[in-house]
């Protein structure tokens, strides 16, 4: 899942991004509304965590733009105000969910994951394919009953491949979904991660390389 965090309190923004990355999400961070509109115009995000009171361009205007463009991106709006009227106003702008500050980080993660599921074709909470079971919420992976410990990027790549339900996923698509924009697209990070993931999943191999196209399970 790829997430954009838009929050002018930099320490909070960076802390949220770090926490989401630990949950195997690809996260970009900006600190004002203008930068958010720029990123949205370039990258496809599953979820935008959007502070309402932003400098340069207000969060309300960023939300309106996402709705105006008809993007499948889901918006989780954050605000320091917990008034019901403010929550209603934010939802009427087109936000998909609303979370007042201060918030519990576990709740933020749960809400981001719930919104992320709504951007794709509905799938069961636990993904199963080729003898592999992947639980995105618990961040657990099992193969034939054996638990497999994966690093966050390995987990993210496996989740993208599992969600594709047998379709080929290109290296570019894996970069887009599992890494943030600071990753050099010309590195071999995808190939190395897939190799490590194959080794951890064990025999027989379940990740197939499709020459010139990408990977599939």
Topology readout:
Elements (H helix, E strand, L loop, with lengths): L1 E5 L3 H13 L3 E5 L2 H10 L4 E5 L7 H10 L5 E6 L4 H10 L3 E4 L4 H13 L9 E3 L2 E4 L4 E4 L2 E2 L4 H12 L7 H8 L10 H13 L6 E3 L3 E3 L1
Parallel strand pairs: 1-2, 1-3, 3-4, 4-5
Antiparallel strand pairs: 6-7, 7-8, 8-9, 10-11
Description of the molecule:
This protein is of the alpha/beta class and 217 residues long. The protein has helices at residues 10-22, 33-42, 59-68, 84-93, 105-117, 152-163, 171-178, 189-201, and strands at 2-6, 26-30, 47-51, 74-79, 97-100, 127-129, 132-135, 140-143, 146-147, 208-210, 214-216. The chain has a five-stranded parallel sheet, sandwiched between helices. The chain has a four-stranded antiparallel sheet with strand order 6-7-8-9, with helices on one face. Residues 124-217 bind DNA.
């Amino acid at each position: 899942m790829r997430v954009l965090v838009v929050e002018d309190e930099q320490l909070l923004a960076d802390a949220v991004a770090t926490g989401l990355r630990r949950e195997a999400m690809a996260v970009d961070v900006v600190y004002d509304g203008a930068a958010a509109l720029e990123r949205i115009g370039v990258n496809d995000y599953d979820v935008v965590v959007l502070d309402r009171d932003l400098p340069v361009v207000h969060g309300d205007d960023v939300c309106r733009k996402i709705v105006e463009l008809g993007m499948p991106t889901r918006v989780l709006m954050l605000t320091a105000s917990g008034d019901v009227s403010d929550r209603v106003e934010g939802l009427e702008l087109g936000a998909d969910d609303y979370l007042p500050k201060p918030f519990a980080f576990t709740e933020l993660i749960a809400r981001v994951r719930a919104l992320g599921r709504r951007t794709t074709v509905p799938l069961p909470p636990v993904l199963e394919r080729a003898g592999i079971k992947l639980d995105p919420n618990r961040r657990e992976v099992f193969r034939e009953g054996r638990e497999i410990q994966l690093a966050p990027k390995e987990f993210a790549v496996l989740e993208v491949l599992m969600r594709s339900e047998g379709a080929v996923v290109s290296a570019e698509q894996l970069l887009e979904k599992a890494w943030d924009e600071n990753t050099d697209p010309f590195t071999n990070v995808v190939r190395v991660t897939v190799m490590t993931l194959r080794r951890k999943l064990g025999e027989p191999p379940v990740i197939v390389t499709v020459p010139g196209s990408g990977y599939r399970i």
